[in-house]
Design a protein that fits this description.
It contains three helices and 28 strands. The chain has helices at 107-110, 369-376, 403-407; strands spanning 5-7, 13-16, 37-42, 55-60, 71-72, 93-95, 111-116, 126-133, 140-144, 148-155, 158-162, 165-169, 173-177, 183-187, 192-199, 223-226, 234-243, 246-254, 259-264, 269-272, 293-298, 305-312, 315-317, 334-342, 356-359, 383-385, 388-395, 400-401. Strands 1-16-20-13-10-15-8-7-28 form a nine-stranded antiparallel β-sheet. Strands 6-25-24-27-22-21 form a six-stranded antiparallel β-sheet, with no helix packed on it. The protein is globular.
């Protein structure tokens, strides 16, 4: 699908679907062009520093206040933190892909919370969800007041119709919908499956590069923002709000995606993970996974993220005289991983596209026995890791799995077995 986009992470954009729809020099004149309503949406406090201030001016056919009162509806399998449905185990956890449902299921119905941390009401932590859907959202729209949503498609392309324009997202790409922005999701294929990171904390931004210098990792110019595209449709519609952890629904007589023009820096965006510029070792040792950070959400502790979105894409491996896969590890941070395509270089089997794993604080993890044996006997020559792409959501807070996650048939209850073949090799007489 050919859509137009603006590029550049966090830039100020000005876009209009009709010529002259944006007023010049004054955001809210007495009468706007085309008799549109002016509405500002703020993703930060009014007094946030200029570099962190997020806001956009929308010029729309009707303001957002035109709707009937919201009423509570069932949450389904969506959860918000804090929750303590089951005890949080220190064991390593891994799940098979969730099957595509047989009954009609759209994006709102098809989101299932697997784990979460922090407190959405105090704007800290994240929740990690999966989705499996087989139908588009019809006469239904959604917005999340609790946090921004990072969508990671694994199977099936999606069209996000948002207040600020349309975004087409396929597996291998990501899409971020800011807190409060209304949208609907259309299928581009028969079905779709993937992951969602719901970020309750500070908005995702590009990580600082430090000694790397001016270039590398994700480049700002590769982030794409939609151009204005409006729906002028009357009828029977519903808008669903996720607010304070619960779902609420209101009736309205028009599509809420009626923004004819907008300008600002608070908008949804997409990114093609193939554009990520990897930084890697060219001598010895396996570097920390932080070098693969695409986006980060800062916490109040410098250097300790509320959430990092990290990827492991195709890349060259050239390290000399060293163990190349990820080493055995116990981490202060908490890691939720998913596999978009192919295979992950630290797991020879069991971790498949659409599956996921959770390794919480100080729980040991690392390559399975087969991978270890292969790595210590491998010929150390340059080779290209082109098996696929995995991602990780890493957070300072312990991820609590949901009751669903601990009881579903997709939970691999024998996951621990992949390390049981690691036998003692120690020989005090052999250096």
């Amino acid at each position: 699908m050919e859509l137009q986009y603006n590029s550049g992470f966090g830039n100020e954009f000005a876009t209009e679907a009709l010529p002259g729809a944006l007023p010049i020099g004054q955001n809210s004149p007495q009468r706007n062009p085309y008799d549109l309503y002016a509405e500002q949406v703020n993703g930060s406090a009014f007094t946030a520093p200029r570099g962190a201030n997020k806001r956009s001016w929308l010029y729309r056919i009707r303001p957002s206040v035109v709707h009937k009162p919201y009423e509570r509806i069932e949450n389904g399998l969506i959860r918000s933190t804090p929750f303590d449905e089951v005890e949080t185990t220190p064991n390593q956890l891994r799940w098979d892909p969730h099957p595509i449902p047989e009954i009609s299921t759209d994006m709102v119905d098809g989101i299932i919370t697997m784990a979460g941390c922090g407190d959405s009401a105090s704007q800290s932590g994240v929740a990690v969800h999966i989705y499996a859907i087989n139908t588009s959202m019809k006469n239904k729209y959604f917005y999340n007041a609790d946090g921004e949503m990072l969508f990671i498609p694994q199977h099936g392309a999606l069209l996000f119709r948002t207040e600020l324009g349309k975004i087409h997202v396929a597996p291998g790409e990501i899409c971020v919908i800011p807190r409060g922005i209304k949208f609907a999701v259309d299928l581009m294929e028969d079905s779709a499956r993937g992951y969602v990171c719901e970020n309750y904390g500070s908005p995702f931004k590009l990580p600082d590069l430090g000694p790397i210098g001016a270039n590398g990792l994700a480049n700002p110019r590769d982030f794409l923002y939609p151009v204005a595209s409006y729906e002028q449709v009357d009828g029977e519609f519903h808008v669903i709000s996720k607010f304070m952890g619960n779902l609420w629904q209101a009736e309205l007589k028009h599509s809420p995606l009626d923004v004819v023009a907008w300008h600002g820096n608070y908008a949804p965006y997409k990114y093609d993970l193939a554009h990520f510029n990897c930084i890697n070792t060219v001598t010895f040792d396996h570097p920390d996974p932080s070098i693969y950070t695409v986006l980060t959400s800062a916490s109040d502790t410098p250097g300790t993220a509320n959430a990092d979105f990290v990827i492991f894409p195709p890349r060259w491996m050239v390290a000399e005289h060293t163990f190349r896969p990820p080493w055995f590890h116990r981490n202060f941070m908490n890691e939720y991983m998913g596999l978009i395509s192919g295979a992950y270089d630290a797991k020879e089997g069991g971790f498949v596209p659409g599956g996921s794993s959770l390794h919480n604080c100080m729980s040991g993890h690392g390559p399975d026995a087969t991978t270890y044996e292969k790595a210590v006997n491998a010929k150390l020559e340059p080779h290209y890791l082109n098996n696929g792409i995995a991602f990780m959501v890493e957070t300072r807070f312990v991820n609590r799995p949901t009751k669903y996650a601990m009881e579903t048939g997709e939970l691999q209850r024998d996951y621990f077995e992949c390390w049981q073949g690691l036998k003692p090799l120690f020989n005090p007489n052999k250096r």
